[in-house]
Fold this sequence. Notes:
The protein contains two helices and two strands. The protein starts with 27 loop residues before the first helix and ends in a 13-residue tail after the last strand. By secondary structure, it is an alpha+beta fold.
Amino acid sequence: MANQSQETNPPQEHPNPDNIVFPPRSLDPILGTGRPRKTSWPEVVGLAAEEAEKKIKEEMPGARIPVVPLGCFVTMDFNQQRVRLYVDPSGKVAKTPNIG
């Protein structure tokens, strides 16, 4: 009989469900962009809405950033290009902005 070469594939690693964090700290594993992507901006809390918007746009240029008064009703749909800024009556960011 002729020699037949046997191909062996290395074992593939599967993610451990115990190590999965939800919501993810970065959407890179999901989107596969090759670079980490922020999902929240706690550093803008206390800034004026305009300043916060500039800071977020620096890191996420395509973001849609609606300014919403704190306590207002908003839709519950998820939009990965939207970052809502919840502001207090003085116009300062009152809550950590997140993608969604």
